[in-house]
Amino acid sequence: MAEALALRFGLNLAQSYGCSRLVINSDNIDVIQAMQEGGLFAGPAAAIIDDCYHMSRDLVIAQFEHCHREANSVAHEVARLARFSPPSTWFNEAPSALLPLMVKDSLLVSSE
């Protein structure tokens, strides 16, 4: 459920900034497969996955890729930061703690 909600939030955010070409990476294989298979999902997050699928159809390009958890350290650090700090949104600059993780993740994803 949390991964599906995060996907919907990300798609909403991308659309609100006018992004129309996206490559979405997630370490949740169930969500990625559901999106690759037309939004078909039978779990408790079925309605959210369906919303995400229809939102992705409005994009010029929406490519969904699975990445291993080791290549997704930025997402885990953002979740950790969100747990211990007040709600905020970063649009122009990411927190400095994320920059080394972004480099590491991009190297791991490109080597897969």
UniProtKB/TrEMBL annotation:
Residues annotated as transmembrane: none
A molecular function GO annotation: RNA-DNA hybrid ribonuclease activity
InterPro entries: RNase_H-like_dom_plant, RNase_H-like_EbsB-rel, RNaseH-like_sf, RNaseH_domain, RNaseH_sf
Residue ranges annotated for the RNase H type-1 domain, each copy included: 1-81
Entries under Pfam families matching the protein: RVT_3 (PF13456)
Name this protein carries in UniProt: RNase H type-1 domain-containing protein
Protein's organism: Triticum aestivum
Organism taxonomic ancestry: Eukaryota, Viridiplantae, Streptophyta, Embryophyta, Tracheophyta
